[in-house]
Amino acid sequence: MKTLIKNVMILTMHGDQDPVNGDILIEGDTIIKLETSISDEVDVVIEGRGMLAMPGLINAHQHTPMSLLKGFSDDLKLMDWLEQKMLPAEANMTPEDIYWGAKLSMAEMIKSGTTAFADMYIHMNEIASAVMEVGMRASLSRGMVFLEDDGGRRLTEALDLVHQWNGKAEGRISTMLGPHSPYTCPPESLKRIADLADELKLPIHIHLAETVEEVIKIRDKYNMSPTEYLYHVGLFEKCHVLLAHGVHVTRKDIGRLKGMRGGISHNPVSNLKLGCGIAPISELINQGITVGLGTDGAGSATTIDMFEEIKAAAWLQKLDYGDPAKLPARQVLRMATSESAKLLNIDHQVGTIEIGKKADIILIDMKKAHLQPVHQIESLLAYSVNGGDVDTTIVNGKVLMQNRVLLTINEEELFEEVTTRAKRIVKGI
User: Fold this and answer.
1) Residues 6+ apart with CB under 8 A from 62
2) Which domain holds residue 372?
3) Looking at the 3D structure of the chain, how many domains does it have?
4) pLDDT tens digits, residue range 293-333?
5) CA distances to 121, 199, 411 from 151, in Å
6) pLDDT one-digit tens code per residue, 321-370
7) Are residues 128 and 276 in the same domain?
8) 254 lies in the same domain as 374
9) Beta pairing partners, 263
10) In this structure, are residues 50 and 9 in contact, taking their beta carbons and an 8 Å threshold?
């Protein structure tokens, strides 16, 4: 199957290449030609006139089933949000709820230009099944908390996910090990997971220093910062690690992260809404640490539109440093594409538009008042585009949305299911 995208402005996000007008030829799941004009015989032609093609956005930190709790517990302090609302509601979720919640998140991601995501939750088989059915790319991890003895059930489920799903769905699904956070995982558990990750050649996905409360807990218990704690248990020595948040990291912490495999997923909208603080992203990048972008779950962020994260990330660094030159447009776009791909350990496949890479591409309709005139395309993408401007979403060479219509999800059925399920989940809370 050959698909040709014609007459489109192409922003490859490869190096410092400027946007060019031309054609993109996809064969199967792979980009095979990028030229000014391509005349090969093809099966499908997508007219790209008036649109911009760029790599699909990559959400480096998600909890997809939390879409069922979107707007349920806003404007609360973090611990009130978590203990009074989130945890009781999540306790009411069935595996079928998890499936439909994940599917709702995927619908929103596809419609706002996200093609791949990293997820950490429970009942991961249901999420993997939804990924396989919908057609997105995902790196999945079973979240593991070790505050109480569960007889090894969580770790068993995590390893079952790896053995059952890693490399499945035409290679769109990869897996990680997901210890929840420093404050929910004692040293012996983290060392065991690091050994397993090293043995199985898997990345690790873990929350880090999201709140002041976490920093205090780790300091009181171990007389260390959360980052120092992970450093001393050997997590960074052995493994590729995706760290979610990194809001409260010190200069000494940043020094400990230098040279690490992996990096940090910055989740600015969620961190802002919960009043967690502003992560020192510019300093992390200056020290050579990879920083990508994520949304966190919709239970905290409410929106999982990655273009909102792009705006928030740039604005926050400019404000925090009092310097409008901080985190310029192209750099923050890299965070949402190639840098997030590095965090998911899939940058050899996606994150840029290049010959030989997988065809994860979005088309943005530029024929709109808020996107005209075009002086610097990167500035419009970073500061003006929103998810509703995405016309077409392609993953692994397959069109998942065209002309704003989802092709692998029945939205009417989806909305009926999630409305009924969400009401039951939150009843009485």
Assistant:
1) 105, 117, 118, 119, 120, 294, 295, 296, 297, 304
2) 2-55+359-406
3) 2
4) 999 999 999 999 999 999 999 999 999 999 999 999 999 99
5) 19, 22, 40
6) 999 999 999 999 999 999 999 999 999 999 999 999 999 999 999 999 99
7) yes
8) no
9) 242, 290
10) no
